[in-house]
Amino acid sequence: MEKKQITSRADIQLLVDRFYEKVKVDDVIGYIFQDVARVDWNKHLPIMYDFWEQLLLDSNRYGRNTMAPHFAVNQQVPLQPAHFDRWISLFETTVNELFNGEKAELAISRARSIKDIMQFKMQQINQSK
Length: 129
Description:
By secondary structure, the chain is mainly alpha-helical. Helix content is about 75%, strand content about 0%.
């Protein structure tokens, strides 16, 4: 498949779908999504489409607390740096397999920021236990 730029919601959907296909079967983080969080993919994926569309294409579709679900998961299984490292690795790999250009670079940059913020917050919580 030839790489293209991220320009539409359909591109966001492709990115998110491919990324979560990897996540679901991943040896490091798959169980967190499948067994711990027990993600309902039919509900979760459209939320992620909205989230990434807002970040990359400036829509106003996403209006949720991003951190709350992650805090809930962290109470069940403390999220560790290895989990966040794997998440970003899978995300960057997926972006780079499918897309190029400014929005692809922005997706990776935003994902790295998200990873850093979430990892910091989870470490703070886990250290205070």
